[in-house]
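ping. complex inputs:
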Amino acid sequence: MVEEQLVEQLTNSLRGLQQGIEAKMPRRVYVDIPRESLLDVAKILKDDFDGYHISTITAIDAGENFELLYHIIVGAACVTLRTKVPRNNPTIETLTPVLPGAVLFEREAHDIMGIIFKGHPDMRVLLLPDSWGNKGHPLRKDWVDPRKGGGQ
Amino acid sequence: MAKLTIPIGPQHPALKEPEKFMITVEGETVVDADVRIGHMHRGLEKMFENRTYMQLIHATERICGICSFTHSTNFCQNVEYILGTDPPPRGLYLRTIMNEWERIHSHLLWLGIAGHEMGFDTLLMWSWDDREEILNLFEDITGNRVTHAYNTIGGVRRDISDAQIQRSLRVHDYLLERMDAYVHVALNEKTVLKRTQGVGILTTEDAKRLCAVGPRLRASNISYDVRKNDPYAAYDQIPWEVITCDTLDVHAQLVVRALEIIEAIKMCKYMLENLPAGDIRIKVPRKVPEGEAISRTEAPRGEDLHYLKSNGTDKPERLKVRAPTLANILNVAHVLKGANIADVPMIVAGIDPCMGCMDRVLIVDSEKETSRVWDREQLRKYSIDWYEKEAFR
Amino acid sequence: MLEKLVTWSRVKSPWVLHMNTGSCNGCDIEIIAALMPRFDAERFGVLLKATPRHADVLLCTGAVSGQMKDRLIKIYEQMPEPKFVVTIGECAISGAGFDGAYNVEGGIDKVIPVNAHIPGCPPKPEAILDGVVKLLTAIKGGD
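pong. complex structure:
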């Protein structure tokens, strides 16, 4: 119910910014977007749908690409913006001008997956220890623990 | 006036999670606050990718020892969503009861720690003593006090007997009686009011902007609760109210939490009295088909989100966990700015700026932008000198 | 004679410092629960201190995370001699379920010497009390 309504409303409001939109489960909507239109979509969600709350950003290593999932809460539903960044150039515009709450989640994604958020106000290490140095980004699938012979 | 940067943490006995706050003060007022987390980062999300789903129930419970049941509920729900199965009603009710008991024990724990921070140790002793009653119930029904191993994919692992229900109901009546005393303390006790009223005000707009969650959000007068807005388990089948408070300060959080305990006790009583008959779990396959799911629960500290992506084997492709505290750190750092240094422990409730346990202080001279590292003795000497100068001025 | 007095006072009032080196909080709340009215470790003279400089016993919980490793050594070195280290919970003993994770160094004994282990996930307050009493008995015996 709520998700079908939302899919319809989102399709109308986004006007082609999305590449795909579906409701997989009750109250869960997934929107595929190119990485250029992330800020625009987030702005529409915030202004027109009261989607001010970003729950988190999930970064997934999907082989050639990194998938970034922005979980934004719209009323009762959780709208997930799915975007892809290429592995050899993992950069994306920061979401912080639209949703300031994303600041820590972007730092987290930077730490563990090495995504670079352009224009982020404060890109220091968040989770990894100060002594981590350049041991790499541990959540990448090809990352091997330096203690077990890996290293970058 | 020279700005002084004081590191608070990461090690402190009252600190449950080692976080490091760098507080810059000008005189008595905090002008800037910065937070460094990651002291307890263990690399769980990487580890999750090498565990089977059955092992992960065990592992997700150990994300946090206080809200252990919420995390395992979240994980089990995600797997159930992908499998497309629904646990039987009795299993869902038992899961909901455990979630609410966890809320009661966690809020009582917080009440005690808040009491300790405001120098009201009697409250700490009382609330932790009453908390033992709930832990006894946990031990009675699940077999363990803190990590319960009660959840499983497709339901819960142990049934509850009629005798256990009767025992539990007696405890709930006792706690309900005790809560009257706590609410009276929260609303009338002078120590509590002096230390919490008007302290750490987070406006409704800021709470929205900074994505606050849980009791902090509801204390900022926003009626949002995952249990109500995005119901899971049996929360849509039982009567209950979302608690909000419009005074926006730490006192509002105290009131919200105290009233939430009462609400939780009433919910549990209702559920225990109206427990549906039948199975408590269903059998599920060991392998999970390819898919993805998002599960949200209302942990005692706020919204807890898990994202699970499966790849058709018995191990997940990715399991992402966003615990509520990460979302709330941002607004704590915001509220600290402009606060009095004596209010810092109340705002960070649970973190005590015990300068005695810090062995050194980083001095950042705002004019020269140089930093000097002082040890405690030098800081003491500096403060004495400063006050002497003040006295003769 | 003086030595006897010192040992006696140490056994009668061991001051402890609790340190979370990367645990899930489960053991930490059980330590606090052991000190609270229901179990009341304070009746044995156990007192939770805020600073390592006052502490006789260091209670460690959790596997050592990368960020806490240096901090743990620092805290250990700040404690006055003789010092005793007690690990609480499985993770502090060996890393348990977290062993092998990229930011986990392993058990406490990989970083600092340990006097006693209290197993359990988390150990019940009774078990913590039992462990503390056993340590005190060992100190009394002239260890």
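Chain C is about 40% helix and 20% strand.
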